[in-house]
Amino acid sequence: MPAPIQQVSSHNATQSIDKQNSTEFNQARNYSSKSLIKLVNYIGDSWRDFANYFEISDVKRRGFQAGREIEDIWRCLEQIRRLDEIEEAFKAINRTDLIQYLIDTPPNREGNKYVPKIFLPDPFDKDTFDEEIQFTGRDYEKEQLKQWLIDQENGQKVVVISGTSGIGKSALACEFALQNQEKFFPDGIYGVRVNEKRYTNNEDFLETIARDLLSQQGIRLDEDEIRNGQPIIQKMKDEFAKIQALIIFDNVETMTINRLFPSGKCSIIVTTINHRFFQASSQYKNIDLLLPNQVESQENERLVNESLELLKKLVGENRRQEINQNESIAREILNLIAYLPLAVKIISISLEGTFENDSLNDFLNSLRSERSRLVHCKPEREQKNLDVWYSFALAFQGLSEEIEKDIFVRLGA
Q: pTM score, two decimals?
Protein backbone atom coordinates (compact mmCIF):
# COMPACT_ATOMS: atom_id res chain seq x y z
CA MET A 1 0.00 0.00 0.00
CA PRO A 2 1.22 3.61 -0.55
CA ALA A 3 3.08 5.13 2.35
CA PRO A 4 1.06 7.59 4.48
CA ILE A 5 1.39 11.27 3.56
CA GLN A 6 3.52 13.12 6.09
CA GLN A 7 3.04 16.72 7.13
CA VAL A 8 5.98 18.82 5.93
CA SER A 9 7.06 22.43 6.23
CA SER A 10 6.53 24.70 3.25
CA HIS A 11 10.22 25.13 2.38
CA ASN A 12 10.76 21.41 1.69
CA ALA A 13 7.25 20.47 0.50
CA THR A 14 8.31 19.89 -3.09
CA GLN A 15 11.22 17.68 -2.06
CA SER A 16 8.99 15.63 0.27
CA ILE A 17 6.29 15.17 -2.37
CA ASP A 18 8.89 13.93 -4.86
CA LYS A 19 10.19 11.50 -2.26
CA GLN A 20 6.62 10.42 -1.48
CA ASN A 21 5.86 9.76 -5.14
CA SER A 22 9.06 7.79 -5.51
CA THR A 23 8.18 5.70 -2.45
CA GLU A 24 4.71 4.96 -3.83
CA PHE A 25 6.22 3.99 -7.17
CA ASN A 26 8.61 1.50 -5.59
CA GLN A 27 6.08 0.07 -3.15
CA ALA A 28 3.48 -0.36 -5.89
CA ARG A 29 5.92 -2.68 -7.60
CA ASN A 30 6.93 -4.58 -4.51
CA TYR A 31 4.33 -7.18 -5.37
CA SER A 32 3.45 -9.80 -2.79
CA SER A 33 3.27 -13.57 -3.20
CA LYS A 34 -0.53 -13.19 -3.20
CA SER A 35 -0.22 -11.23 -6.43
CA LEU A 36 1.62 -14.13 -8.02
CA ILE A 37 -0.98 -16.65 -6.82
CA LYS A 38 -3.75 -14.57 -8.40
CA LEU A 39 -1.88 -14.33 -11.69
CA VAL A 40 -1.45 -18.12 -11.78
CA ASN A 41 -5.24 -18.39 -11.47
CA TYR A 42 -6.18 -15.81 -14.08
CA ILE A 43 -3.53 -15.41 -16.79
CA GLY A 44 -4.40 -18.59 -18.73
CA ASP A 45 -2.72 -18.96 -22.14
CA SER A 46 -1.76 -15.28 -22.15
CA TRP A 47 1.48 -16.25 -20.44
CA ARG A 48 2.94 -16.86 -23.90
CA ASP A 49 2.30 -13.28 -25.03
CA PHE A 50 3.61 -12.12 -21.66
CA ALA A 51 6.83 -14.11 -22.19
CA ASN A 52 7.14 -12.75 -25.74
CA TYR A 53 6.95 -9.20 -24.43
CA PHE A 54 10.03 -9.82 -22.30
CA GLU A 55 11.73 -11.83 -25.08
CA ILE A 56 12.15 -14.91 -22.90
CA SER A 57 13.91 -17.57 -24.94
CA ASP A 58 12.46 -20.92 -25.99
CA VAL A 59 15.24 -22.65 -24.06
CA LYS A 60 14.03 -21.13 -20.79
CA ARG A 61 10.39 -21.81 -21.65
CA ARG A 62 11.03 -25.52 -22.00
CA GLY A 63 11.83 -25.63 -18.30
CA PHE A 64 8.58 -23.94 -17.27
CA GLN A 65 6.16 -25.94 -15.12
CA ALA A 66 2.93 -26.58 -17.02
CA GLY A 67 0.04 -24.53 -15.69
CA ARG A 68 2.34 -22.36 -13.57
CA GLU A 69 4.43 -20.70 -16.29
CA ILE A 70 3.85 -17.24 -14.85
CA GLU A 71 5.78 -18.22 -11.73
CA ASP A 72 8.85 -19.08 -13.80
CA ILE A 73 8.51 -15.86 -15.81
CA TRP A 74 8.22 -13.93 -12.56
CA ARG A 75 11.50 -15.41 -11.31
CA CYS A 76 13.19 -14.48 -14.59
CA LEU A 77 11.97 -10.88 -14.22
CA GLU A 78 13.23 -10.76 -10.64
CA GLN A 79 16.68 -11.86 -11.79
CA ILE A 80 16.90 -9.24 -14.53
CA ARG A 81 15.17 -6.61 -12.35
CA ARG A 82 12.27 -5.92 -14.69
CA LEU A 83 9.32 -6.54 -12.38
CA ASP A 84 8.49 -2.84 -12.59
CA GLU A 85 7.52 -3.36 -16.26
CA ILE A 86 4.76 -5.87 -15.55
CA GLU A 87 1.88 -3.39 -15.76
CA GLU A 88 3.09 -2.05 -19.12
CA ALA A 89 3.44 -5.61 -20.36
CA PHE A 90 -0.17 -6.41 -19.45
CA LYS A 91 -1.30 -3.31 -21.32
CA ALA A 92 0.75 -4.30 -24.36
CA ILE A 93 -0.80 -7.79 -24.56
CA ASN A 94 -4.34 -6.45 -24.00
CA ARG A 95 -4.71 -8.00 -20.53
CA THR A 96 -5.25 -4.86 -18.48
CA ASP A 97 -7.73 -6.88 -16.41
CA LEU A 98 -4.74 -8.57 -14.74
CA ILE A 99 -3.37 -5.33 -13.30
CA GLN A 100 -5.98 -5.42 -10.52
CA TYR A 101 -4.41 -8.63 -9.21
CA LEU A 102 -1.02 -7.00 -8.71
CA ILE A 103 -2.29 -5.10 -5.69
CA ASP A 104 -3.14 -6.94 -2.51
CA THR A 105 -6.90 -6.53 -2.99
CA PRO A 106 -9.30 -9.22 -4.20
CA PRO A 107 -11.20 -8.54 -7.42
CA ASN A 108 -14.57 -6.75 -7.26
CA ARG A 109 -13.55 -4.63 -4.30
CA GLU A 110 -14.18 -0.97 -3.76
CA GLY A 111 -11.72 0.15 -1.11
CA ASN A 112 -12.11 -2.30 1.76
CA LYS A 113 -15.70 -3.21 0.89
CA TYR A 114 -16.25 -6.52 -0.86
CA VAL A 115 -18.72 -6.15 -3.72
CA PRO A 116 -18.87 -9.45 -5.63
CA LYS A 117 -20.93 -9.85 -8.78
CA ILE A 118 -23.69 -12.30 -7.97
CA PHE A 119 -26.46 -13.08 -10.46
CA LEU A 120 -28.51 -16.09 -9.37
CA PRO A 121 -30.87 -17.62 -11.96
CA ASP A 122 -34.48 -16.40 -11.75
CA PRO A 123 -36.46 -16.41 -9.54
CA PHE A 124 -33.75 -16.53 -6.84
CA ASP A 125 -32.34 -13.40 -5.27
CA LYS A 126 -29.05 -13.39 -3.39
CA ASP A 127 -30.36 -10.99 -0.73
CA THR A 128 -33.42 -13.09 0.16
CA PHE A 129 -32.24 -16.61 -0.72
CA ASP A 130 -31.57 -17.81 2.83
CA GLU A 131 -34.88 -16.47 4.14
CA GLU A 132 -37.02 -17.72 1.25
CA ILE A 133 -35.47 -21.11 0.58
CA GLN A 134 -34.56 -22.22 4.13
CA PHE A 135 -32.14 -24.74 2.62
CA THR A 136 -31.60 -27.91 4.68
CA GLY A 137 -29.37 -30.96 4.19
CA ARG A 138 -27.71 -32.16 0.98
CA ASP A 139 -24.31 -32.07 2.71
CA TYR A 140 -23.08 -35.08 0.73
CA GLU A 141 -24.03 -33.49 -2.58
CA LYS A 142 -22.41 -30.19 -1.59
CA GLU A 143 -19.21 -32.06 -0.78
CA GLN A 144 -19.32 -33.67 -4.24
CA LEU A 145 -19.69 -30.23 -5.83
CA LYS A 146 -16.72 -28.98 -3.85
CA GLN A 147 -14.61 -31.97 -4.85
CA TRP A 148 -15.37 -31.62 -8.56
CA LEU A 149 -15.52 -27.84 -8.94
CA ILE A 150 -13.04 -26.56 -6.36
CA ASP A 151 -10.57 -29.29 -5.45
CA GLN A 152 -10.08 -30.47 -9.04
CA GLU A 153 -7.13 -28.63 -10.58
CA ASN A 154 -7.07 -29.75 -14.20
CA GLY A 155 -9.60 -30.03 -17.01
CA GLN A 156 -12.97 -28.45 -17.67
CA LYS A 157 -14.99 -28.30 -14.45
CA VAL A 158 -18.64 -29.10 -15.21
CA VAL A 159 -21.17 -30.73 -12.87
CA VAL A 160 -24.69 -31.67 -14.01
CA ILE A 161 -27.37 -31.80 -11.29
CA SER A 162 -30.36 -33.83 -12.48
CA GLY A 163 -33.64 -34.80 -10.87
CA THR A 164 -37.40 -34.42 -11.03
CA SER A 165 -39.07 -31.00 -10.85
CA GLY A 166 -39.26 -29.62 -7.33
CA ILE A 167 -36.53 -31.82 -5.87
CA GLY A 168 -34.23 -28.84 -5.26
CA LYS A 169 -31.67 -28.85 -8.09
CA SER A 170 -31.55 -25.08 -8.52
CA ALA A 171 -31.67 -24.46 -4.78
CA LEU A 172 -28.70 -26.80 -4.26
CA ALA A 173 -26.70 -25.04 -6.99
CA CYS A 174 -27.43 -21.59 -5.53
CA GLU A 175 -26.78 -22.67 -1.94
CA PHE A 176 -23.39 -24.11 -2.92
CA ALA A 177 -22.56 -20.99 -4.94
CA LEU A 178 -23.36 -18.55 -2.13
CA GLN A 179 -21.53 -20.61 0.49
CA ASN A 180 -18.31 -20.71 -1.55
CA GLN A 181 -18.43 -17.47 -3.56
CA GLU A 182 -16.05 -15.23 -1.64
CA LYS A 183 -13.33 -17.84 -1.09
CA PHE A 184 -13.44 -19.90 -4.28
CA PHE A 185 -15.35 -17.83 -6.86
CA PRO A 186 -14.06 -14.30 -6.17
CA ASP A 187 -15.01 -13.06 -9.65
CA GLY A 188 -18.65 -13.81 -9.04
CA ILE A 189 -21.65 -16.05 -9.65
CA TYR A 190 -23.44 -15.82 -12.99
CA GLY A 191 -26.81 -17.54 -13.42
CA VAL A 192 -29.13 -18.04 -16.38
CA ARG A 193 -32.53 -19.75 -16.37
CA VAL A 194 -32.20 -21.39 -19.79
CA ASN A 195 -35.86 -22.36 -20.25
CA GLU A 196 -37.13 -18.78 -20.03
CA LYS A 197 -39.45 -17.82 -22.89
CA ARG A 198 -37.06 -15.18 -24.22
CA TYR A 199 -34.54 -17.97 -24.81
CA THR A 200 -36.81 -20.86 -25.85
CA ASN A 201 -38.67 -18.69 -28.38
CA ASN A 202 -35.43 -17.51 -29.93
CA GLU A 203 -33.62 -19.50 -32.65
CA ASP A 204 -30.35 -17.82 -31.67
CA PHE A 205 -30.89 -18.46 -27.96
CA LEU A 206 -27.26 -19.45 -27.37
CA GLU A 207 -26.08 -16.08 -28.66
CA THR A 208 -28.70 -14.35 -26.49
CA ILE A 209 -27.50 -16.21 -23.40
CA ALA A 210 -23.89 -15.37 -24.27
CA ARG A 211 -24.79 -11.68 -24.52
CA ASP A 212 -26.60 -11.78 -21.18
CA LEU A 213 -23.62 -13.40 -19.46
CA LEU A 214 -21.28 -10.79 -20.93
CA SER A 215 -23.66 -8.09 -19.75
CA GLN A 216 -23.64 -9.53 -16.23
CA GLN A 217 -19.86 -9.28 -16.30
CA GLY A 218 -20.13 -5.67 -17.45
CA ILE A 219 -18.71 -6.24 -20.95
CA ARG A 220 -20.25 -4.27 -23.79
CA LEU A 221 -20.28 -5.53 -27.36
CA ASP A 222 -19.48 -3.38 -30.37
CA GLU A 223 -21.70 -3.33 -33.47
CA ASP A 224 -19.56 -5.78 -35.43
CA GLU A 225 -19.83 -8.34 -32.65
CA ILE A 226 -23.60 -7.87 -32.41
CA ARG A 227 -24.05 -8.41 -36.17
CA ASN A 228 -22.36 -11.82 -36.08
CA GLY A 229 -23.55 -14.21 -33.37
CA GLN A 230 -20.84 -16.86 -33.46
CA PRO A 231 -17.98 -14.57 -32.34
CA ILE A 232 -20.17 -13.50 -29.42
CA ILE A 233 -20.21 -17.05 -28.08
CA GLN A 234 -16.45 -17.29 -28.42
CA LYS A 235 -15.97 -13.91 -26.80
CA MET A 236 -18.12 -14.97 -23.85
CA LYS A 237 -16.11 -18.17 -23.45
CA ASP A 238 -12.81 -16.30 -23.72
CA GLU A 239 -13.85 -13.70 -21.14
CA PHE A 240 -15.08 -16.26 -18.62
CA ALA A 241 -12.05 -18.50 -19.13
CA LYS A 242 -9.96 -15.67 -17.66
CA ILE A 243 -11.80 -15.43 -14.35
CA GLN A 244 -12.39 -17.58 -11.30
CA ALA A 245 -16.17 -17.62 -11.38
CA LEU A 246 -19.14 -20.00 -11.36
CA ILE A 247 -21.81 -20.12 -14.08
CA ILE A 248 -25.16 -21.79 -13.33
CA PHE A 249 -27.07 -22.89 -16.43
CA ASP A 250 -30.44 -23.60 -14.82
CA ASN A 251 -33.30 -25.75 -16.17
CA VAL A 252 -31.48 -26.88 -19.30
CA GLU A 253 -33.51 -28.74 -21.91
CA THR A 254 -30.99 -29.16 -24.72
CA MET A 255 -27.46 -30.50 -24.87
CA THR A 256 -26.41 -27.69 -27.23
CA ILE A 257 -25.88 -25.58 -24.13
CA ASN A 258 -22.41 -27.16 -23.90
CA ARG A 259 -21.34 -24.84 -26.74
CA LEU A 260 -21.32 -22.10 -24.08
CA PHE A 261 -19.06 -23.92 -21.62
CA PRO A 262 -15.83 -21.95 -21.09
CA SER A 263 -12.62 -23.66 -19.99
CA GLY A 264 -9.88 -22.11 -17.87
CA LYS A 265 -10.62 -21.33 -14.23
CA CYS A 266 -14.37 -20.94 -14.68
CA SER A 267 -16.61 -23.61 -13.11
CA ILE A 268 -20.02 -24.66 -14.43
CA ILE A 269 -23.17 -26.15 -12.89
CA VAL A 270 -25.99 -27.39 -15.12
CA THR A 271 -29.42 -28.32 -13.73
CA THR A 272 -31.85 -30.45 -15.74
CA ILE A 273 -34.75 -32.87 -15.30
CA ASN A 274 -33.22 -35.13 -17.97
CA HIS A 275 -31.16 -37.78 -16.19
CA ARG A 276 -29.46 -38.91 -19.40
CA PHE A 277 -28.57 -35.54 -20.92
CA PHE A 278 -24.85 -35.48 -20.27
CA GLN A 279 -24.17 -39.03 -19.07
CA ALA A 280 -22.64 -39.94 -22.43
CA SER A 281 -19.83 -37.46 -21.85
CA SER A 282 -17.21 -38.75 -19.42
CA GLN A 283 -15.76 -35.25 -18.93
CA TYR A 284 -18.87 -34.07 -17.05
CA LYS A 285 -19.63 -35.13 -13.48
CA ASN A 286 -23.21 -35.92 -12.52
CA ILE A 287 -25.21 -35.58 -9.32
CA ASP A 288 -28.57 -37.31 -9.59
CA LEU A 289 -30.93 -36.09 -6.86
CA LEU A 290 -33.18 -38.96 -5.86
CA LEU A 291 -36.28 -39.38 -3.74
CA PRO A 292 -36.20 -41.62 -0.63
CA ASN A 293 -38.14 -44.38 -2.37
CA GLN A 294 -35.45 -44.50 -5.08
CA VAL A 295 -32.50 -45.25 -2.78
CA GLU A 296 -31.34 -47.92 -0.33
CA SER A 297 -32.45 -47.96 3.31
CA GLN A 298 -29.57 -45.99 4.87
CA GLU A 299 -29.76 -43.24 2.28
CA ASN A 300 -33.55 -43.35 2.52
CA GLU A 301 -33.43 -42.52 6.21
CA ARG A 302 -31.09 -39.57 5.60
CA LEU A 303 -33.37 -38.05 2.97
CA VAL A 304 -36.49 -38.61 5.07
CA ASN A 305 -34.88 -36.92 8.08
CA GLU A 306 -33.74 -33.98 5.93
CA SER A 307 -37.29 -33.57 4.66
CA LEU A 308 -38.66 -33.68 8.20
CA GLU A 309 -36.14 -31.08 9.39
CA LEU A 310 -37.06 -28.82 6.48
CA LEU A 311 -40.75 -28.99 7.39
CA LYS A 312 -39.98 -28.11 11.02
CA LYS A 313 -37.84 -25.22 9.87
CA LEU A 314 -40.59 -23.77 7.68
CA VAL A 315 -43.54 -23.88 10.10
CA GLY A 316 -44.21 -21.83 13.22
CA GLU A 317 -43.40 -22.83 16.79
CA ASN A 318 -46.84 -24.25 17.64
CA ARG A 319 -46.94 -26.44 14.54
CA ARG A 320 -43.32 -27.49 15.14
CA GLN A 321 -44.24 -28.75 18.62
CA GLU A 322 -47.16 -30.67 17.14
CA ILE A 323 -44.82 -32.30 14.60
CA ASN A 324 -42.44 -33.33 17.38
CA GLN A 325 -45.33 -34.90 19.28
CA ASN A 326 -46.81 -36.61 16.21
CA GLU A 327 -43.76 -37.39 14.10
CA SER A 328 -45.29 -40.54 12.59
CA ILE A 329 -48.17 -38.48 11.12
CA ALA A 330 -45.72 -35.88 9.80
CA ARG A 331 -43.76 -38.65 8.11
CA GLU A 332 -46.94 -39.96 6.46
CA ILE A 333 -47.64 -36.47 5.11
CA LEU A 334 -44.13 -36.22 3.72
CA ASN A 335 -44.43 -39.67 2.18
CA LEU A 336 -47.62 -38.64 0.39
CA ILE A 337 -45.85 -35.68 -1.23
CA ALA A 338 -42.79 -37.79 -2.13
CA TYR A 339 -40.56 -35.72 0.17
CA LEU A 340 -40.04 -33.10 -2.55
CA PRO A 341 -38.54 -29.90 -1.03
CA LEU A 342 -40.83 -27.69 -3.10
CA ALA A 343 -43.89 -29.68 -2.01
CA VAL A 344 -42.71 -29.45 1.61
CA LYS A 345 -42.52 -25.69 1.28
CA ILE A 346 -46.00 -25.51 -0.22
CA ILE A 347 -47.66 -27.64 2.48
CA SER A 348 -45.88 -25.60 5.16
CA ILE A 349 -47.66 -22.54 3.74
CA SER A 350 -50.95 -24.44 3.91
CA LEU A 351 -50.34 -25.60 7.49
CA GLU A 352 -49.70 -22.01 8.57
CA GLY A 353 -52.50 -20.56 6.42
CA THR A 354 -55.63 -22.20 5.05
CA PHE A 355 -55.32 -25.26 7.34
CA GLU A 356 -53.86 -23.53 10.41
CA ASN A 357 -56.77 -24.67 12.59
CA ASP A 358 -56.58 -28.28 11.40
CA SER A 359 -54.59 -30.91 13.24
CA LEU A 360 -51.81 -32.76 11.45
CA ASN A 361 -54.08 -35.79 11.23
CA ASP A 362 -56.90 -33.73 9.66
CA PHE A 363 -54.42 -32.30 7.16
CA LEU A 364 -53.20 -35.80 6.32
CA ASN A 365 -56.78 -36.87 5.61
CA SER A 366 -57.24 -33.82 3.36
CA LEU A 367 -54.17 -34.83 1.37
CA ARG A 368 -55.49 -38.36 0.98
CA SER A 369 -58.86 -37.05 -0.20
CA GLU A 370 -57.23 -34.78 -2.76
CA ARG A 371 -55.22 -37.69 -4.05
CA SER A 372 -58.34 -39.82 -4.49
CA ARG A 373 -60.11 -36.97 -6.27
CA LEU A 374 -57.29 -36.51 -8.78
CA VAL A 375 -56.93 -40.25 -9.36
CA HIS A 376 -60.57 -40.40 -10.40
CA CYS A 377 -60.26 -37.27 -12.56
CA LYS A 378 -57.22 -38.40 -14.53
CA PRO A 379 -56.86 -41.28 -16.98
CA GLU A 380 -54.49 -44.02 -15.85
CA ARG A 381 -51.77 -42.96 -18.30
CA GLU A 382 -51.63 -39.50 -16.64
CA GLN A 383 -51.41 -40.72 -13.05
CA LYS A 384 -47.67 -41.34 -12.93
CA ASN A 385 -46.71 -38.28 -10.81
CA LEU A 386 -49.95 -37.59 -8.97
CA ASP A 387 -48.25 -38.36 -5.67
CA VAL A 388 -46.46 -35.03 -6.18
CA TRP A 389 -49.01 -32.80 -7.87
CA TYR A 390 -52.09 -33.38 -5.71
CA SER A 391 -50.26 -31.76 -2.82
CA PHE A 392 -49.87 -28.65 -4.94
CA ALA A 393 -53.58 -28.65 -5.77
CA LEU A 394 -54.52 -28.92 -2.10
CA ALA A 395 -52.03 -26.25 -1.08
CA PHE A 396 -53.49 -23.76 -3.56
CA GLN A 397 -56.84 -23.79 -1.76
CA GLY A 398 -57.26 -20.39 -0.17
CA LEU A 399 -54.00 -18.93 -1.53
CA SER A 400 -54.00 -15.54 -3.21
CA GLU A 401 -53.50 -15.34 -6.98
CA GLU A 402 -50.17 -13.57 -6.43
CA ILE A 403 -48.83 -16.40 -4.24
CA GLU A 404 -50.08 -19.03 -6.71
CA LYS A 405 -48.18 -17.34 -9.55
CA ASP A 406 -45.03 -17.17 -7.43
CA ILE A 407 -45.26 -20.90 -6.64
CA PHE A 408 -45.70 -21.83 -10.30
CA VAL A 409 -42.66 -19.73 -11.21
CA ARG A 410 -40.65 -21.82 -8.74
CA LEU A 411 -41.96 -25.24 -9.81
CA GLY A 412 -38.93 -25.91 -11.96
CA ALA A 413 -36.45 -24.85 -9.29
A: 0.62
